[in-house]
Amino acid sequence: MDTGFRHRLAPFVVLVALTLITACSEPRANAPELLDQAKQHMADGETREAHITLLNALQADSSLTEARHLLARTSLALGDFARAEKEIRRAMEDGVPGEKGLPILVRALVRQGKDDAALDETDELPDGLGDAVRAEILGLRGQAALNLRDVPAAETSFQDALELDSDAPDARVGMAMMAGLQRNAEEARDWLEPLLDREPALADAWSTLGDLELQTENLEAAIDAFSTAIDARPYPTLDRAKRALAYILTDNEAAGREDLSTIRSEGFGNHPYVGYVRGVAEFRAENFDDALAALQQSAEDAPDFLPTQIYLAATHHRLGNSEQALRAARTVYRAAPQSLLGASLLTGIHLSRSELAAAETILRDALAENPDVPALLGTVSNIALLRGDTSEALTFAERLMSQRPDSAAARNLALMARLLDGAPLDDSLLESVRTDGDEQSLYVADFLAASAAFRDGRMEDAMRQATRLRERYPDRADPMKLLAAVQLRNGQWPAARESLNEALELAPEDVGLLSSLAKVERALGNAERAGALAKDALELDPGNGEMALFVSDVAAARGNRDEARAVLENTLATAPESLQVRRRLAADYFADRQLDKVLDVTADLSSGEERDAPELLELRGQAFLLAGDPSAAQPVFARLTELRPESARAHFLHAETLARTGRLDRSRAELRRALELDPDLVEARIGQVRLLVRDGQMDEARRRLDELASRFGDRPEVTALQGWFALGTGDYADAEAYSSQALEDAPTTDVFITLVQALWAQGKHDAAISRMSAWLEENPTDATVLMHLAGAYLSLDQPAKARETYDRVVTHHPDHVAALNNLAWLSREVAPKRALELARRAYELVPQDPEILDTLGELLLRDGQLDAAHRRLSEARELAPDDRGIQMNLARVLMAQGREAEAETLLQMVVDGETEDDETGREARQLLATLRGSD
User: Fold this and answer.
1) Which of 117, 317, 380, 687 is buried most, with the most CB atoms less than 10 Å from its CB?
2) Where are the TPR repeats (predicted)?
3) Is the dihedral of CA 172, 177, 178, 184 positive or negative?
């Protein structure tokens, strides 16, 4: 169902022509007449004609709120979702009620992929909405949550909508989408079919049904569903590309290519999903070079879309590009470890590269889908033995024996599994092995019997049998390894080392033997020899996480942290599936506050990896928080609460991110849950105090804080909270004292900033700057402190030092938008070309921020680029229409362009908003006087 590309991603509707038509329509009717004509067009189902007429009406009279509301509706119907959002926002500002406006706004946001914005707009619905409207909005809210992979929130919204209106289309489509994601095709159809009976022209429902049929390989039905969706919409969407894929998979290549040609002409040619479909078409036609070009571009634009990665791996494999095939196959397997296709793909590529160990790691999951394949049973049993899961190994080995009772290999495997699982060896089975008559069978039976004596603690018997095996088979390493195990159990460490060294001469590339000997050497105090052996093991098996940690620990013990970390980084690059290495690296990076590296090493975790190592999710979320990105942290901690529903800390962390992103009601609920699970969780109680302060309940916050301090006053985070509270209530001396005390035990950035603010508020400017400078000597990349230091220099009118400090921020954090913007402004006189370059970088990162646009516009004006300056400042004014500074800068551009009347209008607006001691107003008056004096 989930193709990874939703209809909202890029509906390409060319409405420029409609706008041009309005400019040429002469003679014009008056605005009310045009409005009436537009209504009639809409009543007759003539949406495009209504759209053109509404544009003309608003050109004649831009104050027609009803026309603007209807224009938003026609824009939505024609697929111009950005315009629909713009027009309905303005219409609602002008008085269109939420009953009419909010559904249009939310639908436009969801269709543009602005799902967070859609959730924000619907967090609290206004009073007075009818049930049908409320159900529509809730259905759209659910779709936004589902797009963000917040399935519980989506389901709640859908259910709430259906309680209000059991036939709510958006909610029913959403429930079908959710069922499709869960591979429940029957339930999805149950949601869609009654809806389509009632509303047979509902394009969203047909499109969702097409996704479902495509997913379940009902290709002819998918073609029919997508065809109906295409016909039902007046604007093009990706449904045509999906129909093209269905055609291609039914070997109707001509129809598929015709659809691809049409959709390219409609403006979707560069869309990653279209590239994927084109790649599939070329692959099936065995045009592998063309397939590779299309798939690579698609994968570059949408790296998380797994079907592209699957075909990309297969294409590289067919072309003999082994490394590239392996990378793409790993991407698929890590994202969907339970997929037989992904497992088979990766296994096949590993086997083609003679990487048996890596292939074996994957095969066990494949058996779940193919439970009776003997080759899989034997291989997975061996995998289980290698990983120490002897019970599972025995289960698979006995299943294999039941299918292949005459197989000597099956009997040997079953005996080995019994031995390692602690089960008694079957004498009849041992005897059946011996009666095979060959020397290998006799060796296997005797070795297993000796191993059973060792396992059962019969050390004398084990020593006797192992010694005899060593004498009878001097060219085999395993008897010597068994003898070493007996010697280790008896505390004979030097003798065990000798036995292992003998075995190593016979099997110098036995990774297990090297690992065991390395551990013995370390236990005997020979760290250098231990490290060398572990390195040898790691060279033979570069993905061996245990040996990587061993080598890293040896290097760290010698004081070589760089080497210790490099070992782990190299191992993870070779074996990204090694969770033990990933855990260690993430924790080390986090301890050093290398947040970008924490985010890199915790990225792209599969659902299985999340379940096996939830601590990686916690580190990822914490890294986002410390990097100042709570919006990115929120879904991470939401997932952590799914994996650890009884973890008070998980719920607290989720509450923290919800609070920081303004979702206070949900934050309170999560905080309550955390305290229900653990009433003494100090972090949660601290969060409770902070929320009370945010809500303005200062007396209750103080009471809770005093209670917290009385019970946990020795905890540095409680002391830090006392400092933060004192700062907020104006008790700066106490804030300084508490923060200083907390910093001694917990030197965190947040606590340090509280101290700096307390010093500054007391006028201790030199002390604050001195403390920040000292902090930055130890933490030179701390962006928060650097930004505070730069701000301090600006407050003291020391622009050169501020500029130097912002430069340090940009050096360490090249995408820090605020630093880029401020540095650009401060550099306007001393380095104008660099200033313009910095402003452009900030604009590329955040093109919709009015302050960024204002800075760039003024610098463009200074550089004489008047048209570009006018564009940027006009955009800034549209985003912040009441900002008098932006009005002033735009007026300057207009004056420079000779557009004095427009400039005068803007300057008068600035003057009209003048306040006492208003430098902007005074400057505007001077410019006005200049303009009027020149008249």
Assistant:
1) 380
2) 203-236, 477-510, 648-681, 783-816, 850-883
3) positive
